[in-house]
Each structure stands twice: as C-alpha cells, then as structure tokens.
Amino acid sequence: MACLDDMEVVLRCEDTPSVSVRFAERHAAVEPNDRRMFFAVGAQAPGLDVRLEGVTNFVVGRGLVRFIDGLDSRGWRGEQRWVNADRDLKVSARYESSGHVALTWTLRPWRSAYGGWEVAVATWLEAGAAKDDLVTQLGDFMTAEGFPVDYHESDNEFS
C-alpha cells in the first residue's frame, strides 16, 4: 500500500465535544487495477480511545458519503443504516425533533486474530449545514484524485 497523504476528517459531537469519530491515514493499493482505499477510523469518548485499521473502501465507491448526503434535513421516521462491504464500519442515523441527526458509528474489526470487539459511539450534528459540511469533507477524503491511477474514470458504486 502507498500512503496518499495526511488528510483527516474529525466529526465531533455537537452535544458532547469529547465524543468524536476520526477518519485518517488514507492508503491506496499500489496495483493499478486494485481499486481499493484503506484508512483508519478512530472513536473517542470519555474513557474510550479505539482505532480500527485497514477499513476498506473502493476509491470510486462513495457509499458512506451518499448515505449521509441522502439524510433528509426535514426529517424522517425510524432509523436508516449503512455498512461498508467488509462490515467492519456501520453507521445508523436517527432524526431528532430538534433538527439534529444522531449518527451511531459502530467499529468492529472482522480480521482480528485476537478475538473480536465492537464499539459504538453516537455523535449529533445539525441536520442542515453541519451535515452538508461533513458530506463535503468525507467526499474529499473518500476520493483519491490521480493516485496511483485516475480513480474518477468510473461512477460505479462498490460500497
């Protein structure tokens, strides 16, 4: 794998800023036909600091970004869910009457040789501009322009 850069996205809970989710350490497979990006996702909360490495996303796959972008700022009933292809990163979304979106991020390493663990942290953000800003940041993070190949040659959705 080749390191892309030191870009990161940090989402802090508006209600409890000590709770956060961090996307960082983007790496791409060096084989030109291998369309995967790997990155780390961290979750922090009082008494909790976990890190999930090797989360996989096809570089042209923007499933998480599309999921969050598709959350209607006017609200919805129930819970909406998204999971990546490896099932090690899950997100559930709930609309709150206060005009906020509650996102619960579940990290669970499926590749662990040391047994499994699972952790979930909940973040709150405003359903309008704050959600749109997160979509922009994650969109930039999930897109690796020009390294090592042009990843924008296809709009196929893989994850």
What is the CATH first-level class name? Answer: Mainly Beta
Helix-strand pattern:
EEEEEHEEEEH
Question: Could you please say which CATH topology applies here?
Answer: Transcriptional Co-activator pc4, Chain A
Are there runs of 5+ residues with pLDDT below 50, and where?
A: 147-159
Number of separate domains: 1
- Count of alpha/pi helices: 2
> Mean pLDDT across all residues, rounded?
84
The biggest sheet amounts to: 5 strands, antiparallel
Shape-level CATH architecture: Roll
Name the structural class: mainly beta
Q: From the alpha-carbon coordinates, what is the Rg to the nearest angstrom?
A: 16 Å
Overall geometric form: globular
The total count of strands amounts to 9
Percent of residues in β-strands: 35-45%
- What is the straight-line distance between the termini? 20 Å
Give the fraction of residues assigned to helices: 10-25%
